[in-house]
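task queued by scheduler; priority normal; single chain, no ligands, no partner chains; default sampling; output format set to structure tokens
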Amino acid sequence: MAVLAASITTRNGKPLLSRQFVEMSKDRVMELLSNFQGLVANISSDHTYVEDEHVRYVYKPFDDYYLILMTNRQSNIIQDLSTLNLFSQTVNYYLNSFDENEIFENAFEILSSFDEIIVMGHKENLTIQQVNNYISMESHEERIQEIIEKNKESEANAERKRRAKEIARKEHERKMGMPPSVYDIATQQKFSASTDPNVANAYNSYYSNASSAAQQSYLHSHQQQETHMDNMGESRYSQINRGVGKGMQLSKGNKGPGMSSIRSSNAARPAYQEPEEEKPVNNGILITIKETVNAEISRDGAITSSELKGVMELRINKAELGHAKLTLTDNVDVTDKTLQFKTHPNIDKNTFLSSKVLGLRSSDKTFPCNDQSLGILRWRKVGKVDDKALIPLDVSTWVSPSEEAEGVFEVTVEFEVTSTYNKPLENIIFTIPVVTDNVSISEDNNDVNASIAGIDDEQGISIKVESIQPGSSGVFGFQIEAGFEDAMFPMNVRFQHKGENESGFTNINVASITASTDDAVELPFDILSTLKAEEYIIV
């Protein structure tokens, strides 16, 4: 079919708006519309089209107006009526009262929608919703960009609040007479002793052309600033090691449980260092299932967000084992969209989705046999709010001000392995973002043998619990000098679990490995699964 023009006229024949889709002059359109008035006056109102010797008029009356499509006589009348119906829907979308002034006010939108429906005289395969989206210029990329901008604003607001808390903390320390940390001193000196090469070049360029007296004065002041920074850093380090800074000390007359040995036990304690992992032994084929969990948990234990990411790695150290394909266990649902599976580009994805088999796309190739780990499958799952399905360790905290000294808090931490995980966790580290040597574990509230593992000027205080078994809970308490409660949060939690020949947190596992050249040949393999906390925070 070929649509020549689309018009809206009054019942008396007055043209209100018209759009030509082929080469037609305005006079020719006016002539055809005039002919239409003569034809429509002589037929029954039940008809929806009329013809003359040149064109066909497909029309629809609404209120005191006509919506008219002019087509050639060879066009399909069924398609013409379908196109007319779509035109009618777009007109109804923009008009409420069908008033002539309203038609003129919305003429641009109406004609634009006509242009979306008809291109070069032929109808586009569109729905009314698509037409409206095109006219309003709805864009997925634009919505994504708006979300990104909102996230940036949220991050900026969070950073502003964090800086406000930092300023409040420093003001509190100043009022209490506590000495500033090395980091604070460096921050205060950043303008006078900037390490920015552009600033340094500007100073050097200026003073290279100055008088000899100005050059000597600049050199002397620069050396004094460096000496002052070194002395203040050394003084601060000495105060921490000796534990005799001018900061607030607990009253000697009222010492809480374990507080008598705070300064002596924590002096010069190094920062906690993660133990280096040894490379697992590979007997031929080693499958490693590595999963990391992220979560944000409120202080009372409510789950704000959770996420689990996993990767299956393959290590082969013998050439005769390179022709291998892995079959996952029956309980793995590879069509589960919540897990968001993603295979390596060289893995046959169709075979994986149809039969849970991880094999190479090309049967002529083999997996690398250099005993190096190769990620062949990844997955990711995001938990819902207050859903503990992806939470291996449930944590809640209680914080109360100490009655013995101002600025000191008593904190109790309770944690347990959730029923959804039901495996032991080792090397549980709680990191409190406070730098102070006024901290100790409560001797009468520590059923998990928690201990202070280290004090770091950047990360804060690390408290370590060796392990916790499934089905049991752990509790420990500590006293800490923090100035205000929010300074102790977010509290970061790290833990890990290693298991041999067992599935991961999401129950993903390998049932068998066979030779890609012969399914009857089964290859021996070992499985190592690990779980670690990546960003597990208490806010």
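post-processing summary
- The longest strand covers residues 303-316.
- Confidence is low (pLDDT under 50) at residues 189-194, 233-265.
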